[in-house]
Design a protein that fits this description.
Number of strands: 2
Shape: globular
Largest sheet: 2 strands, antiparallel
Strand order of the largest sheet: 1-2
Order of helices and strands: EHEHHHHHHHHHH
């Protein structure tokens, strides 16, 4: 649609696709290429071929578009202050920003080297809103849902989507009257449902699930200890069954902690500092 309304629209005669001509692992996206035409090129593009994946060109024109309702509206919340929550958020975001290079280095061994940057980007956005007094710190439900919305917007990648699902679902549970530990576990359940990972799959869930279970049963200090143990355990998992690490051989995974799990452990460690 954007192409058909662009400055190029009057110079385009043919379109091939949209179609899955080339894919990279399980990533979703698109590629747009422009080719100068002459009679020989047009004849070649329209020539019959045996290749199953090749689609013939179609005449270019304005596509039919149908308006649909938004999946979600922006979360609107009145800023408020809560010194304790402010401290926890400040520690959590600072920890993720400080861990950026370390997480990227871990991910360079088992993934595509951007886990630290992804988490730090989300942390910087929340930290900036915290500094500008734009967060509903005294409204846990609204705060969690707002964080979920922001992470979906700024983090990118599957991590951003999954963390957004986690915080949004937890915020909805708090709004329904659930206690925070139970709400966070409900958020984890939704994240596992959509992400498809479970404990033992060598993902951040290996640190997050034991941490949240310990948080409910024994408090924050126990949660931090459980998260650290969960992150360390990922270094001994010879096979990843979810995420980009699932494409990496066991020799490359051996002795390397999952960067997402390390991020979770780092957050819990940071928020327990100072009592």
């Amino acid at each position: 649609r954007e192409l058909s309304r662009s400055a190029l629209k009057d110079r385009i005669d043919w379109l091939i696709g949209p179609a899955p001509l080339v894919s990279a692992l399980d990533m979703k996206g698109f590629s747009l290429s422009v080719l100068p035409l002459n009679d020989n090129v047009v004849q070649a593009l329209n020539a019959p071929v045996e290749t199953v994946g090749w689609l013939p060109p179609v005449a270019f024109g304005e596509p039919h578009a149908q308006s649909l309702p938004l999946v979600r509206d922006s979360v609107e919340a009145t800023p408020s202050d809560n010194p304790h929550v402010r401290t926890l958020l400040d520690r959590a975001t600072a920890a993720l920003i400080a861990l950026e290079a370390h997480l990227n280095a871990l991910d360079a061994k088992v993934g595509d080297g951007d886990t630290g940057s992804t988490f730090a980007e989300g942390a910087r956005d929340i930290a900036q809103k915290l500094a500008n007094n734009q967060l509903p710190l005294n409204d846990a439900a609204a705060l969690l849902q707002l964080i979920g919305e922001r992470l979906a917007t700024v983090m990118g990648g599957s991590s951003g989507v999954l963390m957004s699902i986690f915080f949004t679902a937890a915020g909805q549970k708090v709004a329904d009257g659930a206690a925070l530990p139970d709400a966070l576990l409900a958020g984890l359940a939704r994240m596992k449902h959509y992400g498809g990972a479970a404990p033992g799959d060598r993902t951040l869930i290996d640190a997050l699930q034991p941490a949240l279970e310990a948080l409910k049963n024994a408090g924050l200090a126990a949660a931090a200890q459980a998260a650290e143990q969960g992150a360390k355990a990922t270094a001994q998992m010879g096979k990843a069954r979810a995420g980009r690490s699932s494409y990496v051989g066991s020799d490359n995974l051996e002795g390397v902690e999952d960067p997402g799990a390390v991020a979770v452990a780092g957050v819990f460690k940071a928020i327990t500092q100072g009592g």
